[in-house]
Records
---
Amino acid sequence: MANYLRLWTVALLATVLGTIAVNYWVDPYGLYRPYRAGENKPHAATQGALIKPYQVLLAQPRTLVLGNSRAELGFDPDDPAWPSTYRPVYNLALPGAGTRTASRLLDHVLAAGQPQLIVLGVDFMDFLTAPEARDDDPAPIEKRLLMAEGGPNRWRWWQVMHDRASTLASLDAVVHSLDTLRLRGRPEAAHLTAAGFNPSHDYRQIARHEGYFNLFRQRDMENLRAYKRRPKNLFLSGSQTSPAFDDVAGILRTAGRRQIAVTIVIYPYHGHLLEILRSTGCWPLVEDWKRKLTDLVATEGGAAAQLWDFSGYHAFAREPVPGPGDRTTEVRWYWEAGHFKSSLGHEILQRIFERGTPDFGLRLTPENIEQHLQNVRLAGDSYRVENARSLSELAALAR
């Protein structure tokens, strides 16, 4: 009996150690990256909230990208447009992340290092709030951060142990390791790079099989439903602020104290999404949102803070959408109306760093904001005249 127990114990220990070794070697989530940093990690693409809080501390970036999935897919840290003085770059943007998560992630990074530049992508939808709304409850990701509610996160060690166990010794990790080996070398497999960038391999595969018309149509319908449901309000009752605006102001003040440059980017929405904002009654709020952001950067940001608006009816936003059944025409700048490709992210970076075309994007200031808003309105009128036929289906969806 004693020999049987010893054999059983040895076998169990060998199984556990073998499982840990395989999961560490394959590294299906890209959390450890012992080598083969360039290989695809299909299951990492959906695990950014698990991976990025740890990886960013190892990267010690000079530039930090914050925002939601639009920034995660749009800003490649390896893009040659980044000046050498601002490298390395880490993309800490997360799908679905709002301003509160961005603020918490910045505190996390600052607890261990000092970037030189923050690129913060802001999304209009994140600022729509009920008049009586209050701060959200802490997000699950905060358990992994060095800072919690303004002080050191004393229970972070427990979350670290849990994450190590789930990524090295769990059955899910074994299944994902086997799947990673199965998909090894396939260019269509999803991926998350060591610098936090999602190269959208899965998007490319969907576009190839279903066509860009279906990608745009599905997301247009989702956006229509979302904007119709959301409150048509930016500020809390009796005030000219909200939790989201307070988060942006806090990021600006923190960066100012630490002498970190901040560039806030209003994303380059495709014309379809701009028309959805108009058809759902959000356009006046969009303009007020830009006015408020302009005021915040001017009053809270200091000389090293900038606000860039890339959301107008520029040439990129006017890119035609292929028709139904067309599975060969590729949209160069967008995956769908809300998510831009890294090719357009490159143009944004070129413009920010004063190497791009001057008719794409504008740095907003209190002096030029009203003229800019008027110019966008006029460009929208022109866009609707030039694209009346293609926009008629979008208008039908809205109705």
Note: The chain has one domain: 48-156+189-398.
---
Amino acid sequence: MNDLCADIGYKSINHYGEELCGDHVDIVERDENSTVIVLADGLGSGVKASILSTLTSKIISTMMSEGLPIEECVSAIAATLPVCSVRGVAYSTFTIIHLINNETAEIIQYDNPQVIIIRNDKNYEYPKTEMNIGGKRIFRSSVSLCENDLIIAMSDGCPHAGIGLAYNFGWKREEIIEFLETMSPCGYTAKNLSTILVEECNKLYGNKPGDDATACIVRVRKREPMNLLFGPPSNPDDCGRMMSLFFSKEGKHIVCGGTTSTIAAKYLGKPLKASLKFEQSDVPPIAEIEGVDLVTEGVITINKVLEYAKDYLGENEHYEHWNFKHDGASLICRLLFEEATDINFYVGRAINPAHQNPDLPINFNIKMNLVQELSECLKQMGKRIKVSYF
């Protein structure tokens, strides 16, 4: 078992004036060692294209996740979605990325822009084998993966960006590669990098996209454990055991909550240094304890982290907020969203007397719900989550 994992993220923009996107991305994990990613681009735009791309990606990802060979998957698509008799082009094009043990990527491409691989911050020319399945010209590749590899799949809305506006013939593949080579060393997550790429396309379209544009990115990276402590245990006698388990874990350590940080400081025998500097008004200031990577306030800060997490999984409109600010919530977001792959939550069930104030909209159930919702969001980001209650 290797220590590599895949960070997968995608972003789409709709054709100007359309409510639905004609591109669709489907990600199916067969098990821990097999992940299938399908990016399908339906003919045209709007409702019809959305249905065609969704149907295509669902059929392929479901069949491949069940272990059926690519020939059968493509034959099924060929039979289900014939070529348009008027335009003579396919009703839906697709790109398939099959990750095996996060060591090998099988890439199957049909009429979408060719997948780009960035290795060591430079374009990597990978081998392609041409196949003919059901009358369709398919390109197949098998690539051995290395740490920090970026695999970029796109719909044709990306290279078509800027036609007649910024460029005569759109955003050329070489120019997209140059853009990605510049961004690669920055260490962006797959989601953030796909967002940046698609936002650049949107600018080239003059914020009025002439086609649906989607970028799906896979970032190969090493596993990185992270530990977050939130709240004191319900039984004060369990403080020592809780702290011992928390600090014995490999990886960085985040402590959230006033009482919790006091207990942690006492356990470590180090002073708790508070800060009165407010980075932003709605998030309380952070503190410091020697031996702890980050110390923050509890419920209000975690609630802000959850707000950012939900946005990250959706439109990702607020990534510039938490990516550059230094308040507690933003710092936690960078650690959990960007750095961590395996996150251990240590959650205390003690009821905070301060939260029993009827004027405060905080209670024990809200605290537990925050942990549950944040855990689910992080799982959707592809993180491995373990929650221990005390």
Note: The chain has two domains: 4-222, 225-389.
---
Amino acid sequence: MSRISETSLDKAINLHRRAFTFDFLPMGSPFVMTPRHESVMRRELERQAGLGTVLRAMMNDRLDELVEDPDARATYFDVWRRSGVKAIQTTLGGIEVDPCGWDAIVRDVGWYAHAERHARILRICRTADELEQAARDGVLGVLMGTQDAGWVDPAFGRLQTLHQAGLRVLQVTYNQRNLLGDGCSEPADAGLSRLGCKLVAQADALGIILDVSHCGYRTTREVIASSRIQAAVTHSACAALNPHPRAKPDDVLEALRDRDGYFGVVAVPAFLRKQGTATLDDLLRHLEHAARIVGLHRVGVATDWGAVTPDLPPELAEATRQAFIRAGFKPEELPAIGVGLPEFDDWCKWPHITAGLFERGFSEAEVAGLIGGNWLSYMRRALPADR
């Protein structure tokens, strides 16, 4: 797809105005640089603070900036308006990639509560109905999740606490092994541990979706097979098209189909194509492949790439790269930080993805499902009676 037509882009922008659009955005916000934001970043980098400390300082100051500076607030919300995205799943503790532990998760719970009540930039949602209502009210809906469960205690008290705070999606492992199971970068691929099996049962009892996007293949299969609640691969790619460790083979897609689960396709270039420049065509090929196996109504777009921005400072990009390596990514398999698809190199260009779906021949109803409607349907069948 060398060029997106103006006709398709107009259709996409119009659909975004009317339809519910949902995305997997791990950091909770697109990267919107302002002079004040940059000054906080450079101050922390100059004193050689760790990545988590740098990002935490920027996030905390951002809330004050949005309250105190009307121009900054207008700039921030203009990005969301132009993207057309109305709700996201975020990652508690995600900014502190190395390590991402209980303390980081608790800090993020506090941040989102403060963002909701003080800055009034979002609404924490627990159900599909709440996500839709936030969109109708013109408020960004946020579904809280984590990308690792290594912080759980044997009695699962922490998990109960997070569920009460709003957690509804729980990834069993990140790339590396934890006490519950193996991640996708582990060579042994040993599957769930006994504690991991207990976690599945506890998540089922509480009403929490189990995510296996970063899990090793055996862990992935065992969670899908054993969870009473339909499991999800919220943000991944198809190994049949690109055998990256973060991608899933066809038998996993078949298992999701058989259990009525969900599969989200990323916009991360390294996960979509091994050699050459990945484009929107590659994302669409992965999406079509997944839809043929899992079913069109069980598939959606989940970019996992909200930090893509033309002005991502190189110092921050390098700090992020090093943190991901420490968290289990091999350097040769690590996504290029700050690099997106040619058609999606800025968060505001999200409608280009939707336009690509139209140019691929999907109907308006099908596109509305792929950009968010299918996720709502999945949440309703996975968590029909939220507790």
Note: The first strand starts at residue 22 and ends at 24.
---
Amino acid sequence: MNKLNDLVSWFEDKDKVMIALSGGVDSAVVAYAAFQALGSSAIAVTADYKTLSEDELLSAKQVCSEIGIEQILLDYSELENEEFVKNDSNRCFHCRMELGDHLIELAKKHDVQIIVDGTNLDDLGDYRPGIQALRENGIRSPLVETKFLKSGVRDIAKSVGLSVHDRPSNSCLASRIPWGQRVTAEKLTRIEFGETIVKQLTNIKQVRVRDFDGSAKIEVDKEMISIFDENIMNQITEKLKLIGFSSVDIDKDGYKPGKINVISN
């Protein structure tokens, strides 16, 4: 538990802290440590924007309930931001710059000087323009500063009894749309419903339904592909076509984060 002590200690000389909390394990552990150190002077903020799935929102609420931390919901739509909607390689940067603006405004209202997020050391190895945007807004990452890898975060979450300790990593629903294809409410809705349908029919936890101009491509871990026999595929195809997809296919190469981060016109 020495690593947890390091994380709790990071907060102990702070007066009041706001945690940008998603439904995932990283920000959950940050919120837990902050609450251990600061009690009611730690506030969790979850952005209930249009690219956050209902499942993630429910997870965020559950985590805050388990920790006992106060949660504030930020409600706004990134779909009003043309820089985000056009979905180029800087989409995440524009999303996180907007989130940063909202967090800073909220922090001022609550007299909070420090805003933190759940970025860990493993995240720094990927292409993450969103992290750059948060840095530019002065948002800090205690997991990076105390040298946490993802595995260590999960270990801590499990040891303190957080239900998200084995929750698969997730990303916003817009990440299922290839760069260069516009983000719309219609696409986000069918992606979210599509992933729910696949999860229900297969009992697989980590699912991506990529939306290629209306064609669905399903990604799951490679060892899970065998579950998609003819019967399951027929059921999935029928249901996904009902919610607006024109065709359905399974990616034989399996799930890989950020696979469609290429411009596709």
Note: The chain has two domains: 2-166, 173-250.
